[in-house]
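Technical appendix A lists one of the benchmark inputs used to test multi-chain prediction within the project. The record comprises two sequence entries:
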Amino acid sequence: MLLRCFGSALSRIVIACLAILPGATQADDSNALTEQEQRWIEEFESARVEGIAKAKQSTVMVFVPGGGGGGSGVLISPEGYALTNFHVSSPAGTYMRCGLADGKVYDAVVVGIDPVGDLALIQLLGRNDFSTAKFVPSRRVQVGDWCFAIGNPFLLATNLQPTVTAGIISGVRRYQYPSGTLLEYGNCFQTDASINPGNSGGPLYDNQGDLIGVIGRASFEKRGRVNVGVGYAISGDQAQNFLGCLFSGRIVDHATLGATVGTDEDGSVRVTNILSSSDAYRRGLRYGDEIIEIDGQVIQTANDVQNLLATFPASWRIPITYRQEGQSIETLVRLASVHRGSELLQKMKSALPPPPPAPPKPIGPDSERGDTPNPQNKQTPDSDREEPSDTKEDARKEVMRDAAGDPIPDETAKRIEIREGYANYFYNRLKQDGFINRLRNKFPGQDAGQSSWKLSGQTIPVTADQTASKFELLLSNDGYELIIGDESERLTRGDELLRVVDEQRDAGILACLHALQRMLNLGPDKFGETYYWGTMPLAGERPLRDVTVAVHADLEHRFLQHPETGRLEVIEAVAGTDTDPAELWFESKEDQLPHRLQLRYGLTTVLSLEITDWQMQSNENSADNSDEGA
Amino acid sequence: MVFLLIALQCHVTAHAQPSMARPSDQVQPKMVKIYGAGGLSGLEAYQSGFLVSPAGHIATAWSYVLDVDPVVILHDGRRFESTIVGFEPSLELAVLKVEADGLPFFTFSDQEDLNWGDPVLAVSNLFGIATGNETASVMQGRVAARTNLDARRGTFQTPYRGEVLLLDLVANNPGAAGGALVDPNGAILGMLGKELRDRKTGVWLNYAIPASVLKKPIGDIIAGRKTTLPDESDPLLAREKSHSPDSLGIGLIPDVLENTPAYIDFIQTGSSASKVDLRPDDLIVLINGRRVAHQRALRDQLRRIDRRDSVTLIVQRGNEILERVVRP
């Protein structure tokens, strides 16, 4: 009875809210609102008006030079970083023009792209105080919640005033099959707010003007390219999962479990096939096991599994719970990539529309262009955006042109660096600089020349039959040595480091420490192939850690740094995809060298060391840089 | 009352907006997804329906999807084979039944106070995008008009010309037919119609048949007052004692398919059929209130009727539904 009262009171308010709008029937006296209800409605309407006013400021209208299309976007940082769709940014190559509701047009460059999830990160240039939208947890959004879309439908916003359309969330956790070759929308929102071509990449806001998703595609069947009340938005949660990777300037891939699932007759979700080389298999998952939970979300159907996995970048390590012979097992699984090697690049190229035909234009004298150039000047097609850039800056300036064939302004061109496998390598270099600065900051005195390390202390038993004993770790140009009690292991070559990791031995610690030492000494430029990877959870836990990958002697090393403190937390040494990497976990107190090291393979700790003395000696200068551990 | 106020307060702080989440949540368990015939040449093999009895009766739109016994999926993902227990050709309404009980269902109220401008929610299985236990799609809009339907499918005018609720939302997407139109309280207002165009302008129509129009036929079908299932309980009579197409003076088109529709090919001059103005090309839809799915079903039903009794036929002629009582 009470529930019914509540229901009718609520519906009265909902109806009354709607009735404020013109065209509604008048409520008769018996349905008159109480003062409190009236106040609430006024607050709701004010919130909506304020929400729209606020949200308009962060909406971006994207125009591809040369008339190759366009769409919408949403600003997420004061420095001008904005999210849009891959399919919106791709016809532009790396450079586009973006308008804001303030009436100004800004130059923008592509930062990173996620072709499978249809996301692209771009940066608007010229200011560092852009208005931004705020992400709210999109998991909380329910079917029936009010929402609105702001953007550039039919590219109508040539006066730089975006269009606002309102509706409700029609469905959540929708899965949209890959359209064409690549795009896959997992766990996305469905809305009846009017979504049309040109809304793509734009924001879906909640009633308060906070960001819940990035609009992606719509159903246009039977009525041509006009709205039929069914639009989809990539969830804000998914966009945030990929944000770190997009900041890397990379072309990002999505994740797969390495197993297929089906819904059983009893409604349970069971493994129907599993790759024996997958990490899930190494964590014990087998044919017939029941999947119960992925990343804290309960799995009810086989669709749920695909839906959730589609929201993670490849290589993430996430918690999974499964049931095997009546027993629940919680574990961590490293997800594999959906695409292999250069497969993604190939598929991506074939997914791109052909560039509009345009004769190459002669390079005119650079006009003085500020932050508000006229978009009308720039309406012709593509030229040489696929051409790799010359590393010499002057040469690069000469060939850098936009999709219309016009030269890109110098200041903007400085932020574009084309490299195979990257959307824009410029941003990766920025992140690498940040990485090495933070790392050297935590290990002072290691950036000049070669050096030798000597770590000593006590082992901490990790199994019942072990006893504590003294240890020494020596790393120098001559070789790398691990001495525990009376036993010692000495390695001198890179392939020996690879072997001990592959065989999952204690000496794997030498591979990780050697990589650290080498990175501190040589920096990312000389280490070997080094790139900022993006962000991922640390053993399934958030906040997401900054990850930098460095490859040397066939061993791939991943450096995981805490996003706020910059502290190095883990180095993973990966010998191959079919074995567990060596993980070296660092424990340290603020501004001190690590005082504890733990070596793990999979979920097993094989070595734990308490460091009492960490000596670092430069080869040229043998001064003692030792720092006491705890 | 105190509880009510607290609940209201909680709602205000939790959502700070009068979300439609609650009504759409309430409605979901009463919605079903229907899968049947189609799947070729742009004919979707799915549509929507909603529960109208705790015993598993489902109201939906009469369409080609129901040409086979359709599969019904409940909101929780449970899957049932269904039988068609009845239909009302003039409304293009069908009622299915699944073998289940204790199901949540819509009740039709006696009074209807609905007008243009009133807010509505359309709940349906549009585009087949939610195939398992996912929620049905919910769209919001308003009643744009109450008027009589004047629509066509292709070049043919549709049989139903009665009152409909025209909606300002795109409610006639593929698969939406048979969905529920509800108010913001979750009460049933009508059934979403099929994809039709306005007869004169060709504009796609978004409409629902009002609950007040549906209430009686649905009630009659559930109560068995209007059953249209072929009744096999009546005994088969000897050929010379029962009716047959010949005895009525009806010639049917050649029976070349497994399910050849019961189209009249010719009428014998001076026969009973000619006296009631049955004509070639009429499609026999019902016989004595029971469904005629194909010619075999027609012959079978005629074999169960004494040749001295009169036979009531419902036929579709062009876009009209006509009743003819053929007296021997």
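The mean pLDDT of chain A is 84. Chain A touches chain B through 55 residues (CB under 8 Å). Comparable benchmark entries are summarised in Table A2.
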